[in-house]
Amino acid sequence: MNQLEQLRRFSGIVIDTGDIEAIAELQPEDATTNPSLLLKALQLPRYAELIEQTGRALQRAPCSPAAAMAEALDRLSVALGGEILQYIPGRVSTEVDARLSFDQAATLYRARRLIQLYEAQGIARERVLIKIAATWEGLQAARTLEQEGIACNLTLLFNLTQAEVAAQAGVTLISPFVGRILDWHQARESTRVFSAADDPGVRSVQAIHQLYKQQGYTTIIMAASFRNTQEILALAGCDKMTIAPQWLQELQAQHAPVTAALPEYAAAPSTRAALGEAEFRWAMNEDAMATEKLAEGIRLFTRDLRKLEDTLRRHWQPA
Q1: 237's torsion region: left (phi>0), alpha (psi -120 to 50) or beta?
Q2: N or C end of the chain: which has fewer CB within 10 A?
Q3: Which residue(s) pair with 15 in the sheet?
């Protein structure tokens, strides 16, 4: 077996792309999207008509331009998610507008709207994960959504504090970022070569895995944002991993043995106190890497959202 086939024995494989051809070829169980991937996907010729249709809908919208644009972005996200679901057996993650990352009420509104749009297409909410940045406001919005039967994926997650608050909130799944943590450390230690064993992103996910399994937390850990296949193999045994097509293809081409890399832990009922807002914000303040990468991630997603809006405006000619 190649390494991808072997890896499937230990971890659920999720693809990090909106490219339908790659999804059909690599056959993941789930798929994730974000504004950057949505922007890249919509540059493919197959989506030209979808953009045209959305632009025409914007022109006819009776609401304000800002509200029409928000609706258009959500409809594009759901249209792409619906197409992806034709090629996978599991769930697709669809992201709430990153500019709402510090607005709990607005996040709730847009998350519910995304589910309404999916259900209007005949797609059950059980096949969708609503993706929200792991800010305090995002975590509290996710707590409410989970109580309503809307499953969430907490993204831009960089440390144990974010992970524990997500688990205590009953979140379905978290996406701890591996490669972006490595990026931060490499930028500060440019002469150091990190092995998989001392990769700070790998070690972060290992710590989350240990905490979750020992405390009996049921939130799924889906490691994300990889920079090489060594990071992926060092986390074999993580519940799930969302992986870009280039790394999936590299794993397909290799045949070296793959073994489970994460240990099993005996679970005991959690005795840990729930973390409150002040504790969360202080812990984030004390973690420069997590604070900086969370803020940077929101900015980068916002940049690509604005590019998406510009693309739509080029197809929107108000009467």
Answers
A1: left
A2: C
A3: 31, 243
**Distance set, CA 145 to CA 9, 240, 280 (Å):** 32, 22, 20
Torsion of CA 258, 260, 262, 267, to 10 degrees: 170
Asked if the structure places residue 319 within a domain, the reply is no
DSSP 10: T
What is the C-alpha separation between 80 and 85, in angstroms, rounded? Answer: 9
Domain-located, residue 48: yes
Residue type, 319: A
pLDDT at 132 over 50: yes
The whole-angstrom separation of Cα 118 and Cα 139 is: 22
pTM, two decimals, is 0.94
Q: How many domains does the chain have?
A: 1
DSSP element (H, E) containing 152? strand 152-157
Q: Express each pLDDT in 9-42 by its tens digit.
A: 999 999 998 888 899 999 999 999 888 877 887 7
- How do residues 148-202 score in pLDDT, each as one tens digit? 999 999 999 999 999 999 999 999 999 999 999 999 999 999 889 899 999 999 9
Domain that holds residue 32: 3-314
Question: Are 214 and 266 contacting, i.e. CB atoms less than 8 angstroms apart?
Answer: yes
The distance of Cα 227 from the centroid of its chain, to the nearest Å, equals 16
Is 131 tagged catalytic? Answer: yes
Distance, CA of 223 to CA of 235 (rounded, Å): 8
The HSE-up count of residue 93 (CA atoms within 13 Å, CB side) is 28
Closest by alpha carbon to 131, among 98, 100, 96? 96
CA distance 167 to 173: 8
CATH of the domain at 244: 3.20.20.70
